[in-house]
Amino acid sequence: MPIAKESYASLTLEETLAGLRAGSFTASDLVGAALARIERFEPAINAMVTLDDAGAKAAAARWSRDAIPAGDAPNLSGVPVALKDNIMTRGFRTTCGSKILANFVPPYDAATVEKLRAAGAIIVGKANMDEFAMGSTGENSAFGATRNPWNPELVTGGSSSGSAAVVAYGGVPAALGTDTGGSIRQPAAFCGLVGMKATYGRVSRSGVGALGSSLDQVGPLTRTVRDNALLYDLIAGHDPSDSTSLEQPFTPTLGEIEDGVKGFRIAYDPGLLESEGVHRAHADAVRAVVAMVKDAGAEVAEVSLPLVKYGVAAYYIICACEASTNLARFDGVRYSVRETGADMWDTYSKTRGLGFGEEVKRRIMMGSYALSSGYYDAYYLKAAKVRRLFATEYEKLLSGVDAVLLPVTPAPPRPIGQKCTPLECYLGDVFTLVANMAGIPALAFPVGAHDGLPVGVQAMAGYFRESALYRLARTVEKNVKLPDAPWARPIPEGGK
Q: Is the residue at 493 inside a domain?
């Protein structure tokens, strides 16, 4: 039965697929409504860098003529999605949120994009992001800050800011982001979404603009846990073109998602929730989830999370070192905007000086310093040893429990433009970067609201235990309802 056009934005990924298969609407209906909604929300939110109107409409027309595949096999046939702008798209601009790549058009698709296209997804465009994924607020983009659809005066979280925002205001039902130290989970928490950072190597990094190669991971942002599992199942698996991709056999998670948490052992650190700087609403959210899973039949254990206080220092040394190496290629010779100087070195200096933003230059300098002669042992090598301890200690902890609960961020989203020192900004990652340092999966999911804003909780599990995280989050999701979500609001005045 047909549904009203204004209702498309409220549909989940699964509902969208079901509606397409039932003939309630066509792919052209969906894409047209998505582009209209994006057009009307963008002046206030700034979630999208580049739109592919023509390509999306042409793909939708093909799906509208052809039959949408039937059956239960997960697919995205005819569904509009968005991609973070560091995920390469063949023949379509990819900027990494930076002036230095303002005109870059990749000659190939990222591995995850190939999987989405093979599954029938329609890519409507590229989402805004902190430049080269360096940021936790969405304000470090060369194309302007992304604002939070729940309250445009507040930050969205970063660095996958646009991917979260466009899903949150109902432009698309799902998007891909990347997570190096919390860049999927933080915007998910601030925007009332579900965001997965999988086991390192579980999702291919091939064709992704690298920040920290040993930390980066592609993952889905959606409005429901089931949708997140569906999209994760599509993009996960071994990729021979990525040397860091794991050959561990992959079992889809969606089939287990309704199995609940009865018999699970769930841990949390009560002392962490009382730490200085942890907002009461975020601590209470973790306690609420503890109560929910206990009622659902899980055993709850109190633990002390190891090494958290050392995480920020070690992480930012390792990440900056890898960033300084990865970004050395952007010198105006092949990949980037070129600022011509008097000689080769002057050209390099001008290109990088004018092309990179302040945060990117800061981290390049930090990384180059830590890798330099005389400082390598004191900084990088010591941070690498701490990272090894993270992996060992969390593997030990998670061998005895099914999941660990903790906040996503210490505090709620701050106002756009509110100044903070680099250290103050970096401390916002203190709970999320743990999973990246250890290489373990972590899932952020909404559990309620405070002062009209969503509040999320994070769960971490052992290697390859993504299905346990989805089961936990799905159990909680059944008890949670977010108030007046942006995707359920009418299109702004003047909308089509």
A: no
Cα separation, 315 vs 309, in Å, equals: 11
- CA-based max dimension of the chain: 70
Question: Tell me, what amino acid is at 98?
Answer: S
pTM above 0.90, yes or no: yes
The whole-angstrom separation of Cα 356 and Cα 370 is: 20
452 inside domain? yes
Which DSSP state fits 411? S
Report the C-alpha gap between 331 and 345 in whole angstroms.
Answer: 10
CA 432-316-135 angle, to 5 degrees, is 65
- CATH number of 30's domain: 3.90.1300.10
Bridge partner list, 172: none
Output the tens digit of pLDDT for each of the chain's 496 residues: 466 666 899 999 999 999 998 899 999 999 999 999 999 999 999 999 999 999 999 999 998 777 677 666 668 999 999 999 999 999 999 999 999 999 999 999 999 999 999 999 999 999 999 999 999 999 999 999 999 999 999 999 999 999 999 999 999 999 999 999 999 999 999 999 999 999 999 999 999 999 999 999 999 999 999 999 999 999 999 999 999 999 999 999 999 999 999 999 999 999 999 999 999 999 999 999 999 999 999 999 999 999 998 999 999 999 999 999 999 999 888 777 888 888 888 888 888 999 999 999 999 999 999 999 999 999 999 999 999 999 999 999 999 999 999 999 999 999 999 988 888 899 999 999 999 999 999 999 999 999 999 999 999 999 999 999 999 999 999 999 888 899 998 876 654 4
Positions annotated as catalytic residues are 84, 159, 183
How many domains, the chain? 1
Quick check: helix, strand or coil at residue 354?
helix
CA distance between the termini of the chain = 22
Residues 333 and 348: their CA atoms lie apart, in Å, by 8
Asked if the structure places residue 386 within a domain, the reply is no
Tell me if 429 is assigned to some domain. yes
Please state the length of the chain: 496
Q: Is 339 helix (H, G, I), strand (E, B) or coil?
A: coil
Q: How does DSSP assign 187-225, residue by residue?
A: HHHHHT-EEEEPSTTSB--TTB--SSTTT--EEEEESSH
Contacts of residue 422, defined as CB under 8 A and 6 or more positions apart, other chains included, come to 359, 362
Give dist(CA 401, CA 461) in Å, integer.
Answer: 8
Q: Within a 10 A sphere around the Cβ of 61, how many other Cβ atoms?
A: 14
Question: Directed axis angle between helix 53-65 and helix 27-45, to 10°?
Answer: 160
> What is the domain extent for residue 152?
12-306+391-488
Q: Which residues contact 333 (CB under 8 A, 6 or more apart)?
A: none
Check: CB of residue 258 under 8 Å from CB of residue 44: no
